[in-house]
Amino acid sequence: MQWLDRLKQKLLAKPQTGAYVPLPRDVWGQSPRDLPLWNFNIIRMMLWDPTVRLGLAMREAPLCNAQFAYQDGDKWVSGIKADREDVAEFVLQQLQRLWRFDLHKILKAQVWGWCGAEITYRQCNGRVEFDSLLTRHAADVRALCRETTLAGVRFRRVQAISLGHVDVMGGKAFWHAFMPEDGSFYGHSVLRGCYSSWADKWFDGMALDVRRLFAHKDAYGGVDMTYPGGKTEINGVDVPNQDVARMIAEQIKAGGVTTRPSDIDPVSGKQRWELVRATIPASPTHIFEYPKELDVEILRGMEIPDDVLTSENGGAWEGKKVPAQAFFTGLNKWGNLLLGDIVKQLIEPLVWLNWGRAEEFEATLKPLGLQSGQEQQGDKPNGGGGMVNPFAPQGGGFGGGGFGGGGRQQMALDPTEAVGMGVLSAAELVKAARTAMRMASDKTGDGPGQWITIGAQKSGDGEKHGGVPVKVLNGKIIAGPAKFVGTRIKQIAERDQPDSRLHQEIRRGAEDWRVNKRDLKEAVDHVWAEKREAITTREKAKQRLREIMGLTQADANRLENAGKDYTAIKGFDVKARQVAGELSELGIGGGYEGGSNADDTDYSSLVWELLKEGRIEPPARHDPDIIDEAANLVIKSRPSKHKQPSEEDADYVPFGLRSPGDE
């Protein structure tokens, strides 16, 4: 087996082309056609263009809304995949913090070609965590390399240092290049692809100047005016006719009125004060369309297909899938490159530092095309179908590639209940059945984790009674009642701590409303559960509404941005009346009824507002409105001094029969 060992050594050796040096084909200091040299000053001027700024924002938006997820079979599961759950949670927290507060700084690499930053850290709960990125302008940062690998970043214009620069090495330095050439640490601005079109639009005498000149000439039309020799008396003053003619010509505006003497030359028979107005092209459309055509070329140069940003061609979402998916695929490439830098330069060192060794994890980006397609179809949850990610996850041994935001998602319905209720598809049904069987085997003691009892109360005999059995692994509940699965023990314990937010609000409400605290807490649980159920039911009805109407929130917003509403959609009013009757959970009425029960409710506008409405989240249990409503319920449920409460009332509000002094 010596040949196999030699083969392994050969495969694991340093790259033989590591010393490769590319030819100096960089575009800096060069230019296409007869344009000025390409440099940072040109980029600064291009940022004045509204189309350029819109295009940059268009490219950043999908990445800012991307999701971290990993593929499990044919489904995408939100979160980070790792052997250890605490590692997965830590990695996700670090990436989400960078995503939320510092992603926009890194995305400037597409403008300038690269991004250099100093990493700052913080200590939290005994661990070293990412704090922020201190980015500096691309003109003032340079990549430091050791042999053929990146070693750090040099920051120039640091005035507190005698050398004027400071070298920050790996662990504290971050470097990202936008689509670099082979063998180069530096990338290129995405704006170089639209430099020529931008110049045709902005340079002297080009499209914008021509349009402005035409508008000026059209408003202040040129004239050719003749005048007789001599002078004309105006208000007792003799003014040369040449000056009079000049004043008439210079004050002429489009549509303006002119007056002059009707003096005929007896020799030529023509007017001595003859005025000939300048003419304009019969169809000046091309003058106004030329800048718009250049705007389209600018967006194309930024790798944004026509139908992604503009909607002049009309058509449904299905007709725009090809250019949209090509656009998202390009962004997926950038996202994976960016995440590879983040994982290698930031996340891997943090994991090593906090756990003392390399821990396997996989951070991947849910394909942007798939995510966008689900939003177009009504914000459906993660699932199969749609665009397939053409880029395999980075990493494998230690770390991984991927990019996005968001946290873990959990089934709203317990798998065991889902099997009984028949709400899953055939494939999902089998998977849920397996999950239910695994949960049943867990309760017998098989598998990792430990069974404990939570919520037990100490009684008069000094022993604890009641409570709920749950199975815990690494501080998180992995088996037991569906409402607890996925929750950390610490979160449940905090709800019963006297210094928690909920208990603080309950104490405040009990004092303000003069009610018993235990009564108020039970009432809060009751009110909050009803609120959550009502909001959840309404959100499901809204989801069904979007499916029936065939419109998403994004579709409705796009129509309104174009100055349109539901009246532009054929048959919308008929569907709106029908859906109002089918989905009573929406609370907008009973739909269309004929005869004596007919009403004049504008269901179309009500349905339209629901389509535009975003997702409504249930309030927190400690929300002041929940506390106040629960306190009112306790007060109303107290027995009347003049009437003994019925058994039905007592059963309906069991917490309302205690006196304020009971504890």
Helix and strand topology:
Elements: H1 2-11, H2 40-46, H3 50-64, E1 69-72, E2 75-78, E3 81-82, H4 85-101, H5 103-106, H6 109-112, E4 114-124, E5 127-136, E6 141-146, E7 149-156, E8 165-169, E9 173-177, H7 195-202, H8 207-219, E10 223-225, E11 231-234, E12 237-240, H9 241-250, E13 275-277, H10 285-301, H11 306-309, H12 321-355, E14 361-362, H13 368-376, H14 415-421, H15 426-443, E15 450-454, E16 457-458, E17 464-465, E18 468-473, E19 476-479, H16 489-495, H17 501-513, H18 517-549, H19 553-561, H20 572-582, H21 603-612, H22 624-636, H23 647-652
Antiparallel strand pairs: 1-2, 3-14, 4-5, 4-9, 6-7, 7-8, 10-13, 11-12, 15-18, 16-17, 18-19
Helix pairs in contact: 7-10, 8-10, 14-15, 17-18, 17-22, 18-22, 20-21
Explain what this protein looks like in three dimensions:
With 663 residues, the chain is of the alpha+beta class. Among the domains are: 222-277, no CATH class; 410-438, no CATH class; 497-663, no CATH class. The chain contains 23 helices and 19 strands. The strands form eight sheets. It has a three-stranded antiparallel beta sheet. Strands 6-7-8 form a three-stranded antiparallel beta sheet, with no helix packed on it. A three-stranded antiparallel beta sheet has the order 15-18-19. A hairpin with an 8-residue loop joins strand 7 and strand 8 (165-169). Helix 14 (415-421) packs across helix 15 (426-443) and helix 20 (572-582) packs across helix 21. The longest helix has 35 residues, at 321-355. Residues 379-426, 439-446 and 641-663 have low confidence and may be disordered.
